[in-house]
Amino acid sequence: MWWGGRGQSFNIAPQKEEPEMRLGPKSVQGSRMPEPRSRQLGSCLASGCLPGEQILAWAPGLRKGLEPELSGTLICTNFRVTFQPYGWQRSQDTPLSSEYDFALINIGRLEAVSGLSRVQLLRPGSQLKFIPEEILIHGQDFRLLRVGFEAGGLEPQAFQVTMAIVQARAQSSHTQQCAGAALSKAGQGSGSRKPPIPLLETFEDWEIERKNQGAKGWRVSTVNERFDVATSLPRYFWVPSRILDSEVRRAFGHFHQGRGPRLSWHHPGGSDLLRCGGFYTASDPNKEDIRAVEFMLQAGHSDVVLVDTMDELPSLADIQLAHMKLRALCLPGENNFSLFTLGSCLRKASDISVLVTSRVRSVVLQERSDRDLNGLLSSLVQLLSAPEARTLFGFQSLVQREWVAAGHPFLTRLRGTGATEEAPVFLLFLDCVWQLLQQFPAEFEFSEFFLLALHDSVRVPDTLTFLRNTPWERGKQSGQFNSFTQVYTPEYSQPPNGNSVNGQLSVWDWNLRYSNEQILQFHNPGYDLEHCPDSWFPRQQSNFMVPGLPSSVWLFSRGALTPLNQLCPWRDTPSLLAVSSRWLPRPAISSESLADQEWGLPSHWGACPLPPGLLLPGCLGPQIRLWRRCYLRGRPEVQLGLLAPTISGLQSELSRLQELLRKWTPRISPEDHSKKRDPNTILSQSH
């Protein structure tokens, strides 16, 4: 987190007399302090501790790297490492809200320093070779905690707390939870507690969302209610009203991991955005199955565009490599999502938004796994095309639907397991959203601080939202269901044993970690209230939509539309998407944007005005920026004014602020918004 907490104090202070301690490596249990002082410190920390949390070691220290430097105590528990400044108070209601806390699973790099040149990188299982004068804890969320230890007989404690951190990291699994974190909030454990946003775990949630989108030609399917079609899919999803569940079951069997075509978003003008996995070409469908697949892809439209989301965009390995390079640039001692990666994502999302809004058609996002780039592009398309998605409530619902319920493998992609599947796709999405917020600051109800809170929440193990790979795993872990008939299981779908977390909580329970004052900062003071939708139900916008060409099938690739003879790969002429893309000749990248093609070229399509509410971001050069407030948190020397304290830096900062003021149409102060907005209504608006 980037804020400090408030409330009840730990009341920890150094003492002159310290019991004798044995120096040397020991187990986490053996590194505890002697009984009298341990009992005293544990009693003081209990008010701010989570249920089941135990103090393993502590040492007086001095937080460095920030001004002013703070004296306090470095504490290692079985859940986290926390620095407790003397006199600082932690909120009893928000026990996890502290810029001084590092969950064990969030620690990416641990260094011990002695003198000017003696530095040891401490990995799990390492033995500390000297008494540290200072340790540096690098968070995977780009934060840095730098603590120097006091001399004068306290060296054994510095050694012990450092070794306790090393061993606690080694012993903590990537699925370890802060058990019972919600028990500090009255009424959180109640079974009747209403979640702040629909979690899309029930038939009723999906039906309400379908009506909200105005998707009249669609229905909620229960074919996967027992997860016997695909464990990575939610229990419910939207399919065309005229297709039977028996046809859905057979048709989905011809797609990778059983992830067949489903509605992602219905545009108020009539178009439909779908997503699905890659064709399973080794299957042998009969004519009825092929007709069902085609009917689901067409979604009642004559004009269909297939989008290979893996084309032009970086692979998972490329995304992971870009993230590692970003850490190397932004964290001292570490080896940018590249701006090109961000630009390519925004450009492709912009092109797909044009496809959806320029003609009444079915646009199908197709990725082999349907769990990474499909979610990123589908979410960005909705942010660019739907003002409702740019509200706080709408954005949270969007993430819950397109990422959490859709089965994005958060645990595999984000938990730093070193597996080949690791790639922070969701963090790349948040960076793209921040880019949009910089280019269109008056169009978004939420602020940069909200994006930072969501960015940091993937490293806080207090809920199941980002701790599992599939809806099935979350349901099993929370006890939502006890048995089901399993037909297909992905290779990483088996949940670990144990049920230590409250499954009713979600990451959207912000008041668990943030105070009302902090939640108020989630709201963007530059948001144009005229953009706020009068109703959650979208208005029909058919006046600017024109039908697509009759019986047309297109492949969208490299910024250009290429006609296809067939929709499915099992016909006489295989679909291009059924074949590995590296064997296919690719059209040259179009020099014109798709907006120019759709609204001006080709000429026989005619021209139509730019749809209201559509955002077309810049994707090149200086239009894409580094998210400094997020990525440079570990380098306070460059955070002063967000730019270097030089004349040129101040001039650049001034130009940036003037640019933001020009973009902010309304001139409403944060105080005015605070008077009109209550933190509870901000995050749980009832539409």
Distance N to C terminus: 30 Å
What is the number of E strands?
20
Q: Can you give the mean pLDDT?
A: 76
Give the low-confidence spans.
1-40, 174-191, 482-503, 535-542, 573-588, 599-607, 640-644, 667-671
- The fraction of residues in strands falls at 5-15%
Overall geometric form: globular
Write out the strand line-up for the largest beta sheet, numbering strands in chain order: 6-4-3-2-10-9-7-8
> How would a crystallographer describe the biggest sheet?
8 strands, antiparallel
What percent of residues adopt helix (DSSP H or I)?
25-40%
The helix count comes to: 19
Structural class: alpha+beta
Compute the gyration radius: what is it?
Answer: 26 Å
